[in-house]
Amino acid sequence: MEQPNFRPPYPYAAPNESSNPYPLPPGGQAPYPPPYALPPGQAPYPPPPFQAPYALPPGQAPYGAVVPVPGQEPYSSTPISVVGPEFCTPYPLDLVIANKLLSSRKFSVKDINGNSMYKVKGKLFSLHARKVLLDCAGNTIVTFTKKIRTMHNRWHAFKGKSTDSKDLLFTVKKSSLIQFKTKLDVFLANNTKEEVSDFLVKGSWSECSCCIYLGESSTIVAQVRYIYIYTTDHFD
């Protein structure tokens, strides 16, 4: 008979006693309760809740630990400052970019509770060579300019209203000339050689969705997806 996985209402009887309803397994295991002998690598049953150390099966993470899906790294848990540390949060942040159906020149960036956070002036997807990101007070945070006559459609992002090279934050360009799906390389200002991208954008232009990865790794920094929401809203 196998040893039960619960504690009997009274201690085990001594070995070889016929009155013992819970016979001990062979191998000289000591009576219950502890201390008693355990097979190598086996933890006491049940394991003390939230108490270490106790043995875990190979490859099994402790209760509550985040286990990444094989082949995919978890979201980056370390804030990465590109524009400035004041725009970083120690937790994932969901934002909504919204615009009116008949107007593509003004965009409002809000949190999931509907609170305005940023604004975008200029057509987000157009041939115009200049766009700006503003805070709620109308202060320019980032200025985007497109380099004219480039095969890779290179864009530059500058801090504030500046377009001076000393205020360059990052550049974005197509990874290749011919693409069936969107793939963009992002290089920070100090990455002048541009041999390896600091961020990589992969997505689908037709679906208006993409993922932003940390360099050439599979660590996801952000995700973007397009949804239709019909609402009555006002943009300043």
UniProtKB/TrEMBL annotation:
It holds the Pfam family LOR. SUPFAM superfamilies: Tubby C-terminal domain-like (SSF54518). Residues 1-12, 22-47 have a biased composition (Pro residues). Residues 1-47 are annotated as: Disordered. Belongs to the LOR family. This is Tubby C-terminal domain-containing protein.
